[in-house]
C-alpha cells in the first residue's frame, strides 16, 4: 500500500484560481436543453471572434482547455456560418480513432441528425459518411493524409481543423507541413489549429515563416496570411493535488489502493485513473472489482470500467453514460482521457505518472512501445480532468520532488521518436522527394531517416534514386497498412497465398482477437492452445479464423473458445476491404490451402528486418536481433513461448522488464537472404547458421 495522503498532512495545490463554472450533465432531454448546454460552453462567448478570424485569416490557432467546446462546437459554428454550403465539407481531425467516433456521435446528437448523414466520420476501415450530404466530417489525421493521395489539394474541404495539435502525433506533424504547402495553392482554404496547451507560439511561428506571404497593401482579395491566435478562457474548478511521500514501487497496486481509499473516505463523485494500456487497465479493473467485493457489503456502488482505443463500441458507451444515482463510476483509462475526450462527472483523478509511448532507436533499428514517464504538461492536463463539474482532487502517484525536478516540461513530438518507414513512403507517394528538406514542425533525426530509406530500399519500395518503384512502391503505398504488412500481402500474391495473408493482415490490424476480463489466465491459455500452430502466431490466427467460419460465424463458438466475437466481425469487415484493395492493385487472390511454408515466406518478405536468432548458450529463451544484436524474448502470450525455435521473426516489440516479441513465427534463415539479399549479406548469415 502506498504511503501517501495522510489526512491532515495534505499539501493542496491550486491549479486554477478561477471561481465559478457550470454544473453540467449530459442529458438526452430535448433540443432546447441541448441548445442551452451549447451556449454555456466557454467557446460560445468567442463564437463571433472565431468566425471573424477564420473569415479573415488563412490560419487560426485556438488554444483552450479540454472540455471548453473546441471540438464539438467550432465545426458547428462553421457550418452555421455557411462554410459547408455548396457541397463543401468541414473537416476536423483527431489523432485517435476512439475520439473521432465519440465526438462525431456527440455532434450528430447535438444537431439532431443521424450519424453518417450531415455529420459523419471516417477512420481506417470504417467510413460513416455520405458524399454530398455530409457537411461536417471527423476523421483521424492519418485518414486525411491518405485522402491526399487521391486529392492532393484536398479540394472538397473548405475548412480543415487540425485538433489536438499539442499531442504532436506523427500524422499531425506531417499534415501541418503539407497543409502549409496546400495553402499556397489554395488561398480559399482555411486552417484551424486547435490545442489544449500553449504551444501556440511555436505553431504560429511555423505558419508564419518566410515562405508564407503577407497580404500586399491595398489588396482586397484573399485572407491575411499571418496566422491569428485566440485563447479561450477555461472555466475549470480548483483541484487539490496530493503527492505520495515516497516513490511507489508498483503504480498499478498503488492506483488500485488509492481508488479503494477514495471510495471509502471521499464524498460521491466519479474517479478517473490514468494507467498505460490494455494490460494494466484490465488488471486494475479486475483487482479493484475483486477487492471491492472482498470488503464485505454486497454492493458498494462501484462501477469499474476500462477505456482504451481497442475497446468494443458497447463498452465505450458505458463509459459515456451518466453515472446512475448512488453509484460511483471508476474509469480506468489510457491517456486518451487526457485531452481527446471529456468524461462528465469526474471529481477525482489518480495519475500513475506513466503512459505508453513509442520509442525508436535508429542505431538498433528497434521501435517499441514503452511505459515511460509523462511530462509536466501531461500531468497538468490529467489534473485538470478532476475540476470539470465541481472542485476536485488529484492524486499523483509520484513525489512532489519528482514532479518539480525530474519530469520534463513537454513531451517529445512523436516524429522524433518513431520509425519513419510509414511516414517516408507516404511523403514519397505524395511526390515529396526531398524529405529531409521538407518543412517539418519538428525535424526527424537524419539517422532515423537513413534507416527508413534503407528498409524501404530493401523492401523494393524505393529505387536507387530514392524514388517510388513502379509498380511495387506504388502498390505498397496504396494499401492502407504498415508498409511491411503491405509488402507481405504483395508477396503473397506471387507465392499463391493471398487469401491467407489477407486474413493475417486483418487480424494484425486489430488489438486482439481474444477476450479479456473474464475467465482466468489459465483458462484463456488453454483455449488458445486449441488453435496453437507449431509455426507460430500468424498461423494460429488462420486456425481461429477457420474455426470461426466453420462454426457459421457463431457468437456461441467465440464465447466457448475465449475468442472476441466483435473482434472477429471486425476481422471479416477489414478482410473484405483488403480483398477489394488487393484486387484493385492487381494482387491475384488465391489460397495455398494451408501450405504454411509459403505463408511464412510471404511474411518474411515483409518482416525480414525483424529476424532474431536464439542464443546458442541460452536456457532462458534469449534471442538476439540479427541486425542490431539486441536481446529480446518471446512474449508469454505467443504460442511459441517456451518453444523457442532457433530462428524467428516478430511483428512488434513491447518492452516491460525485458524486450518482448509479440506475434512470432519460426522461419528458415535461408528465406531471409531470398527475401532481402541487400539487407542480409549472404556470407554473414551463413556463418551464423553454423
Ligand atoms: P474540447 O474539444 O474543448 O476539449 P469538447 O467539444 O470535446 O471540448 O467538449 C465540450 C463539451 O461537450 C464537454 O464539456 C462535454 O460536456 C460535452 N461532450 C463532449 N462529448 C460528449 C459525449 N460523448 N457525451 C456527452 N457529452 C459530451
Ligand atoms: Mg477536443
Give the integer mean of the pLDDT values: 88
Low-confidence parts: 1-29
How many individual domains? 3
Largest sheet: 8 strands, mixed
Shape: globular
- As a percent range, the share of strand residues is 15-25%
Radius of gyration: 26 Å
Number of DSSP-assigned strands: 21
Report the structural category. Answer: alpha/beta
Helix content: 25-40%
Instruction: Tell me the distance between the termini.
Output: 52 Å
Give me the number of helical elements: 25
> What small-molecule ligands were found?
adenosine-5'-diphosphate, magnesium ion
Identify the strand order in the major beta sheet. Answer: 4-3-5-2-6-7-1-8
EC number: 3.6.4.13
Pfam families: AAA_22 (PF13401), HA2_C (PF21010), Helicase_C (PF00271), OB_NTP_bind (PF07717), WHD_HA2 (PF04408)
InterPro entries: AAA_22, DEAD-box_helicase_OB_fold, DNA/RNA_helicase_DEAH_CS, HA2_WH, Helicase-assoc_dom, Helicase_ATP-bd, Helicase_C-like, P-loop_NTPase
Keywords: ATP-binding, Helicase, Hydrolase, Nucleotide-binding
Description:
- The model is unreliable at 1-29 (pLDDT under 50).
- Strand 14 (354-361) and strand 15 (366-373) form a beta hairpin.
- The protein has 3 domains: 30-209 and 223-232, P-loop containing nucleotide triphosphate hydrolases (Rossmann fold, 3-Layer(aba) Sandwich); 239-415, P-loop containing nucleotide triphosphate hydrolases (Rossmann fold, 3-Layer(aba) Sandwich), CATH 3.40.50; 479-675, no CATH class.
- Helix 17 (483-495) packs antiparallel against helix 18 and helix 17 runs antiparallel to helix 23 (596-607).
- 39% of the residues lie in helices and 17% in strands.
- It is of the alpha/beta class and 690 residues long.
- Strands 4-3-5-2-6-7-1-8 form an 8-stranded mixed beta sheet, sandwiched between helices.
- The longest helix is centred in the C-terminal third of the chain and has 20 residues, at 565-584.
- The chain has 25 helices and 21 strands.
- The structure holds adenosine-5'-diphosphate and magnesium ion (MG).
- Adenosine-5'-diphosphate binds next to helix 3 and helix 4.
- Magnesium ion is lined by residues 70-71, 163.
- Its EC number is 3.6.4.13.
- It catalyses: ATP + H2O = ADP + phosphate + H(+).
- It is an enzyme of class 3 (hydrolase).
